[in-house]
Design brief:
By secondary structure, the chain is α+β, with helices and mostly antiparallel strands. The chain has helices at residues 47-54, 58-66, 76-82, 90-98, and strands at 7-10, 13-16, 20-25, 31-36, 38-39, 42-43, 70-75. Strand 5 and strand 6 form a beta hairpin. The relative contact order is 0.20.
Length: 99
């Protein structure tokens, strides 16, 4: 399997970009969406690239910025080991359960 060959530093550790994903987060920390950083020939190596991927128009990007939505690069192993099903904050988990 061919890889991109790109390496990124996350929390001081060198990680192949092919083993990472981008996570769209609310200011509270909840994850709204996620996308793998490398898929076939598509490479999302920067926050700007992934924000444009999620929000193709300038209006959408400006709205996300106003709402404090951010893009976080994370090793997929870290996500699986430390986040997994706990991708929502207590406030949003409780509000969606009661709805």
């Amino acid at each position: 399997m061919k890889t991109s060959g790109l390496i990124v530093a996350i929390d001081g550790k060198q990680v192949p970009l092919d083993e990472c994903g981008w996570f769209e987060r609310r200011p509270c920390g909840c994850i709204l969406s996620a996308v793998v950083a490398v898929s076939g020939t598509r490479v999302l190596a920067t926050a700007e690239q992934v924000i444009a991927h999620w929000n193709p128009t300038k209006r959408e990007r400006e709205k996300a910025a106003r709402e404090g939505i951010t893009a976080e690069l994370m090793a997929l192993a870290h996500y699986r080991e430390h986040i997994g099903a706990n991708w929502e904050c207590e406030q949003h988990t409780a509000s969606e359960v009661s709805a």
